[in-house]
Amino acid sequence: MTKACGKFFLSAGEKKTVPSPLSLCGAAFLALLLTAAWVPQAPAADFQIQPMTIDLGRNAKSGVFSVINTGKEKIDFQVSLQEWSQDESGKDVYAETKDIVFFPKVMSVEPNSQRAIRIGLKAPIALKEKTYRIFVQEIPTPKKSAEDPTAKIRAGVSIAFRFAMPIFVKPAQPQESFAIAGIDMAKGTVQALIKNTGNVHVKLRNVKFSGRNDAGEEIFSKEVAGWYILQGLSLPYKTDIPPDLCGKLVKIDVSAQTEKDTANGTFNVQSGMCAQ
Questions:
Q1: In this structure, how many other beta carbons lie within 10 angstroms of the beta carbon of residue 229?
Q2: Which pTM was predicted?
Q3: Around Cβ 244, how many Cβ atoms within 10 Å?
Q4: Angle value at C-alpha 64, between 94 and 8, nearest 5 degrees
């Protein structure tokens, strides 16, 4: 499997199966573009991209991604770059940009070899972090029969992998902080709003919900995987509480964690919040 970091796409039209903040996985992003309607089991990519992210800023105006071909055949790639933001639900939003230059835009990598994608920052350093993604997409090559390489190209599925690597342009004075801005509950679903209060992104490891009864005993616990919250945004994380436990809860504790810090909050459950 790849070590690259990107989101998962599944269909020729790039219809996203986006890990929302409600059920995000902290794994690397993987993008599949399918030129056929159905695949029994998608194979792993025969290439890796390192590193998974690049930080640019006042002291680092350029960087390099290495595309490593671990397969037995030459792989062709197309490379593109866009500015990256998120909407209020955590869905990724992309826009064209000229803030960063990169090269090459098309390349080939021979088996057991690697090539570099070089990036350089053109825009001035801002007061808040700016975020981008560089997309490295495999150009699918039609496969011939293994028994007869000179035979006609087989009909069927052609699969191309695409990876979306984050690029973070740090402000002059980075400040990473976050908080639980609010907790609410209705119809047996508890939701916590996690707010990025700094000027750079935060990457949540998880958000944990812990419910207690009137004796102080923990009778419900659920951990929701976290992901990026870009600067200036507040994203909701939520979970459903089983009906047989919901009516017994009097308090729910919420804990949001990054690699460096933890934010905590408490919510008192009122009668009627479990009603469907």
A1: 24
A2: 0.78
A3: 8
A4: 40
Tokens representing 83? 């500015």
Phi, psi of 243 (to 5 degrees): -55, -35
Q: Is 244 helix (H, G, I), strand (E, B) or coil?
A: helix
- 186-204 pLDDT, tens per residue? 999 999 999 999 999 999 9
Query: For 245, phi and psi rounded to 5 degrees?
Result: -105, -30
167 to each of 61, 198, 205, 206, how far by Cα in Å?
A: 12, 18, 19, 22
Q: What percent of the residues of the chain are helix, what percent strand, and what percent coil, each to the nearest 5?
A: 0, 50, 50
Domains of the chain (ranges; CATH) run 31-169 (2.60.40.10), 178-268 (2.60.40.10)
Residue 41: what residue type? Answer: Q
What's the confidence (pLDDT) of residue 201?
97
Residue 206 DSSP class: E
3-class DSSP state of 29: coil
What's the mean pLDDT in 250-254? Answer: 97
- Cα distances from 204 to residues 76, 150, 162, 173, in angstroms, run 34, 51, 24, 21
Are 141 and 73 in contact, with CB atoms under 8 Å apart? yes
